[in-house]
Amino acid sequence: MSVLEVRDLTIRFGGLTAVDGLNLSVDEWEIVGLMGPNGAGKTTAFNCITGFYKPTEGHVFYRDRDVTKLPPHRKAALGLGRTFQNVGMVKSETALENLLTAQHTHTGYNAVKGLTGAGTVRQREKDLVAHAEAILDLLGLADIRDRRIGALPYGTLKLLELGCALATDPDVLLLDEPSSGMGPDESHELGDRLLNLRQELGVTMLLIEHHVPLVTAVCDYVYVLNFGKLLAEGDPEAIRNHPEVIAAYLGGEAPDALAETELPHDQEELAEVTHS
Amino acid sequence: MAAETHVLAPVTATRKLDWSRLWPRIAAAVPLALLAVLLPAHSDTFGHVGAYAAIFVMVGLSMNVLTGYTGQISLGHQAFVGLGALTAANVVSTGITPADPFTFGIGIVCAAAASGAAALLLGAVALRIRGLYLALVTLVFGSVFADAIFTLPSLNGQDAGVSAYRPTVFATEYRYYLFALAMVLLCVYVDVWVRRTKLGRGLVALRENELVASAYGVNVLGYKLLGFTVSGAMAGLAGGVFAFWEQEFSDKDFTSVAGFNLAITFVVMVVVGGLANRGGVIGAAIFFALVSPISPVLQALANHTGWGTFYGNNKFYISNVIGATLLLQTVVMNPGGLGQVIRPFARWFRGHKFTLHDPDGDAGAGALEGSSVRA
Fold first, then answer.
1. Does the pTM exceed 0.80?
2. Residue A164, domain extent
């Protein structure tokens, strides 16, 4: 059974079709990569899946349930955790407070009951703190527990954001460029970490990633987007040597693929839209 | 299914009492508590002024929930206070005899409920707009709401002013002050638990980034409404206490120019106090409450220096002048407000070492950045 399935997903902004008939599926326990050059529509697809954008056409299924129209917070509560391309956390708060905020749907009391400061609320708050500390330990971030995150380095922030996404207790984790801002060593470490997380927590993942060694190391399956359309799919090794993918990334022309691809046409269309 | 992944088992945390961390709290809290309880006992005037300060503190805390945590601005808060006052007075509505304590209690509760509901209404409008437009909508809401409803003769005592006599238990100024203080403590308690639990965390998250908040599972629209409602209920409570404060008030305290003056004072109060900073807001609220009672002192001072007539003619604007000056000083030089100034003491109060250097970076400035006050 696929945990997450996207069927014919299309979203248009005015005349621009940002994602065009995307089909993808993520199975239980899989780590699936979503690649593509800048502007290919990867993040837009993410935003459609997580409910931040309403797709023009198509459906998103989560465990065979149509969740296309659910608002983002409902999807988060269902178990679709996500991170953001430019680090999405509450900047004025500390690392611990962010992890507590991320456990929003698992507090076990409602917002109004919280105001009474009842004994059960106090106990639950202590549990939440303990859980947050466990996540900090898991990621080796225990020493930044009480630091305000505004001043932390980018790599640490990306890692902490992963922790926050974990704190939402996700079933499927959608990671938007988790290795951006990291060096080769750090992203290698991140790869190991993602594999460990799947091992320990059983989280299924869909990640947008450019870093090819990382994709090859962790992904079971890769989808490549270009100009909103699915360009190729397959296992990482096949994708690496796929001529159209190489062409899309390097901007060159893959001789044997050129006949089929509509790339130049799409480019013109895009240029028209951006200039108008 | 999501629950299956909950491998990190919740550990039950325990914390021992630590006297070395506790004594600063005692050392600071005991004198403050004594001051708050004993000083207004000095005379009827002190009690009267003290109760007025208590009302301002409640409004300050109410604004703190809305502007400090939720990041929404309200230039119409006088309407919620006024609605609370009118509701309480009309529910109790005894004419000339003292209210019985039970009806009095009902009146106070109704005040909070009515203003909470009105704030929910404003919140529903405010969901779609932000920044300057929100400020304008709340401004218009405040004045139109006040001018339309408060001027109904059946509500405002046939335009002759509303009387709201206290129950005999709270007949003396000092006793009424103690009642107001208890209501302040109630608001502080709620504020503390707003900040400590999911409501406050959700509000702060949506203040800074609605996308992130919803990715965390926070229902942004619902929580904004909740923020408005809690804030409105606190303002209504303040209004209820205000109704019985002088036992006689006019709807004109909350309409047109006087009402607008109040609304501005409330906003200035929470910014000067420091957004999202409880201690700072309480301090600033007390300060602004004391501006008009000390007016006679200023008058005497002005008389002495030969500015008596000038001051007498313009004393209506004195709180505006002070407010504007402090607001400028805060926004330009001290974005965290009074809360930023007292932060070293607040840290010490919480049991940390006393140091002027802020080890965690500055949160006050961040709070201001995130709120629509900047927009």
1. yes
2. 88-169
